[in-house]
Design a protein that fits this description.
73% of the residues lie in helices and 0% in strands. It is mainly α and 74 residues long.
Length: 74
């Protein structure tokens, strides 16, 4: 079983990177929310199950598409 700390760090870094880019606000928000969702999990495996059984399972893909469409309309 793997510790949740690297997963939390990954989601934190992804949220920060997308926010800093200025082009991916939806992705930044989703990754930040996923981090909040899994912070009480003990393992990465537990976090994966929690994400899979939540509305966040497909949310990163939806956020990516939204960011792309919005960037094309500006």
């Amino acid at each position: 079983m793997s510790d949740i700390k690297p997963s939390l760090e990954l989601y934190r870094l992804m949220a920060e990177r997308h926010k800093a880019s200025g082009f991916a606000p939806h992705q930044a928000q989703v990754y930040s929310e996923i981090m909040d969702l899994i912070k009480d999990c003990a393992t990465a495996e537990e976090a994966m199950v929690k994400i899979k059984n939540s509305p966040y399972y497909l949310a990163p893909t939806v956020a990516l598409v939204r960011d792309k469409v919005e960037s094309m309309t500006k």
